[in-house]
Design brief:
Layout lengths: L2 H18 L2 H4 L1 H12 L7 H16 L6
Helix pairs in contact: 1-3, 3-4
């Protein structure tokens, strides 16, 4: 795995954990900042990862729980 893809994967894993814990409801600025560290790799991100980060941004903006 390339270094860039490894960074994306590691950062996506953190984002997923935070979203599943609804951390974005208490610390939206921290999560938004973290998302920016991922989306700077937008051209090499998978479509799935792009969709996920867009969903995360929406949940932050709307103050929605990620838990189902």
């Amino acid at each position: 795995m390339s270094d860039v893809k490894k960074k994306i994967t590691e950062r996506m894993d953190i984002l997923q954990r935070w979203m599943e814990d609804d951390y974005h409801l208490n610390q939206p600025e921290v999560v938004e900042k973290h998302i920016k560290t991922i989306t700077k790799f937008w051209p090499v991100m998978s479509e799935e990862d792009r969709d996920y980060t867009d969903g995360c941004k929406f949940a932050i903006e709307e103050k929605m729980s990620w838990k189902k």
